[in-house]
Amino acid sequence: MVISIDSPLDMHLHLRDEEMLDIVAPLSAETFSGGLVMPNLVPPVTSKEDVRSYRERIRKAQGEHRFIPYMTLFFKSDYSPEFLESVREEILAIKLYPAGITTNSEGGVSGFDLEELSPVLGVMSDLGIPLCVHGETGGFVMDREAEFIPIYEMLARHFPDLKIVMEHITTKAAVEALDRYENLYATITLHHLYITLDDVAGGLLQPHLFCKPIAKRPEDREALLKTALAAHPKVMFGSDSAPHPRDKKEAPGCAAGVFTAPIALQGLAQLFDRHGALDNLQAFVSDNARRIYGITPIEKTVILEKTPWLVPEIYEGTVVPMFAGQSLEWRVLSAE
Ligand code: DOR
Ligand code: ZN
Predict the structure, then answer these.
(1) Between the CA of residue 130 and those of 89, 135, 173, 183, 212, what are the distances in Å?
(2) How many angstroms separate the alpha carbon of residue 323 from the centre of ligand 2?
(3) 185 has which bridge partners?
(4) In this structure, which ligand is nearest to the CA of 108?
(5) pLDDT of residue 111
(6) Which of 23, 29, 238, 293 could form a disulfide with 62 if both were Cys (CB 3.0 to 4.6 A apart)?
(7) pLDDT digit string (tens) for 225-282?
(8) For residue 13, how far is its CA from the centre of ligand 2 (angstroms)?
(9) Which residues line ligand 1 (CB under 6 A)?
(10) Atom of ligand 1 nearest to the CA of 258
(11) What is this structure's pTM?
(12) Structural domains for the chain
């Protein structure tokens, strides 16, 4: 059996910089038509020059593959209206991190004081720049996302014209919030559709499945699965593929992030096939994002075939993918 996906999009992607960028950019660019590139570099992407030069580095690293890096800016509450207007054409969204909540987010927002955030959010709303949010509080790790929902609701209510994307949702609570506000959207990763906390820490600790937000309970995964498999119109695929060198993962103080870029489409095909939902894969992995973000991606036809495929143990001796050394039921036959 073969299926064809038209211009797959990864609407939440970490490409990093330097050597890691050179390793991972071609892997996304090979099978995806475009990706929303996260700005949490060190230092983060906060100026027009940062955006432009990072885009250039990505384009260089992606090689011959046709791929659009859709750029983001790291949210700062002191951006001026003039700056936002001038950077509008360079970016697709602005990404907001609570300070210190995950990798390289130290310069993020503390406290969620509406008065402090409103000037920038108001201008973003006026200019039609979507806000992508890492929605976790500093509370108990399993409750962080659910505790953040009232903040999403406050933002959605105060800025009804601002598109707010709840990134990498992991809970039933977030799924339920989606339908309460017209301007709330969400991305869902591959790994949160497959795993629960049990897969991370229920047996021997699995550092390559450790990420933020941490995988939750079976009922949460069920809610995510139901939403993704139905290709809920307000939900998009965003891998949150977050590569770290192997020695930073297989270490005390394991870095958070699951590297899924090179196995994402195969993993999605397997999942949607197992649940009899292959007809909805196109919408989940491309059409919804086109509509929500109003983008027209590069045309790329990806043919997937239902044939066992052995996932590499490691890429370039550096970065270990999800399902390393395991067999997936689908492989990419061609992408052009
Ligand atoms: O697990 C994660 N890794 N979650 C994030 O939010 C950031 C990411 C990273 O950049 O490594
Ligand atoms: Zn991320």
Answers:
(1) 13, 15, 22, 10, 22
(2) 19
(3) 165
(4) 1
(5) 87
(6) 29
(7) 999 999 999 999 999 999 999 999 999 999 999 999 999 999 999 999 999 999 999 9
(8) 6
(9) 14, 40, 102-103, 134, 211-212, 242, 256-257
(10) 1
(11) 0.98
(12) 2-335 (3.20.20.140)
